[in-house]
Amino acid sequence: MPKQGATARRRLRDQPQRALLFPFTEGTWGHTVRLVALGEQLQRHGYDVTLACPDSLKQIARRHGMDTVSFVGMREQRFLSARSRAELRSAARTLSKELTKFRKVITTVGPAVVVSDLQPIANVAAALECLPSAAVLNAELLRQPFEWWLPGIQRALAPAQIPKWTKDRIFGDLLLLADSPEVIGLRDLPTEVANALFKSVREVRYVGAIQRTLPRWRFVPRRRPRVLVSFGLAGSRKWLAPTLAGLGGLSIDLVAVTGGTSSSSIVRAASEFTRVGPGSCRLVSSLADFSMHVAQAGLLITHGGHGTLVEALTIGVPTLVIPSSEERELNAERVLGLGKVAPPDRDQLRHVLADMAMALMKDREGDHRRRVCADKLRAGRGAALAAESIVELVNSKPRGQPLG
């Protein structure tokens, strides 16, 4: 008869390992959906998957058989500009509290590996628990926002009473770049970011776009074309109202994703849109099947976030980008020749947006170029390669032992 301890160890060994995924929680879709795609591939390797996210994003994970835990990640920009002694003390306290939040979720879930998307403190927390971790990023994110995030994070981490090697694990043990080396390389990284990157990770792997199986777009003539507008939570607050104003007068059926914000200016802009023209406007907090709505739209208008933009290019929908940051201006370069990029200026949008939108919706010659681009993206194995890399990482590190 086997001893009780041996039986318990065998039972523990036979249980599926669990991956804990931390998406960037200020977005409405893109950063979450690509970790869901990665989670699906990890499930194929026998992993149980838990997504740590706000309640508003849990439905996405649950539809794919994943567990969820309520979590809202830190907003790093709150303390990154700290300079004075008082500000630095406050920043250190803030980061310490956030680190405790991440560690609490990790110890509660009990994963074999932690994966983050634009959540660097999750990787530090994983290191403190002697767990392997991976970061999923696009190459542009290593310039923006990490070029200005990194010094603030390092200043706030400096006084923390934790081992120095864990403070260096901002990028985890493995960095998965959701790009191809032909598009963007690492040679132009800021020196500080490059140094921090190679202090942290054991390996950098380009895996390509990380995405699920997506529907294909095809042109469907309609009396009033469908237009989908999605800017993410922060972008909606700033850009949704002027975008609705710029589209005023068009005969379109418009759906605008607010991300949960319901400012009076957005509500007024939606009301004004329906008042001045023959079109309709519907405000929604989120869309359960965003990808299907994109595939059925005659036009997508977006801020140019990585997840949304890659999905749009893979689906093949005509896309108009209003880039709201330097990072998204870099992203927007990907739609050149396939879509249009509008100036991120409120006054200019009112004068040029309607014409740009109509020209793109009538651009049948561009359908072939968009289809060719979509076929190339569909041929990639980004999610599968990312999952294989994470499994290799876990298998190379016995639990409870630091990596470096």
Spell out the key features of this protein.
2 domains, six-stranded parallel sheet, 16 helices, single chain, Rossmann fold, 46% helix, 404 residues
3D architecture notes:
46% of the residues lie in helices and 14% in strands. 47% of the residues are buried. It is globular and about 60 Å long. It is of the alpha/beta class. The chain contains 16 helices and 13 strands. Strands 3-2-1-4-5-6-7 form a seven-stranded parallel β-sheet, sandwiched between helices. β2 (48-53), α3 (58-62) and β3 form a beta-alpha-beta unit. It has two domains: 15-209 and 380-395, Rossmann fold; 226-378, Glycogen Phosphorylase B (Rossmann fold), CATH 3.40.50. α4 (85-109) packs across α5 (120-128), α4 packs across α6 and α12 (306-315) packs across α15 (365-378).
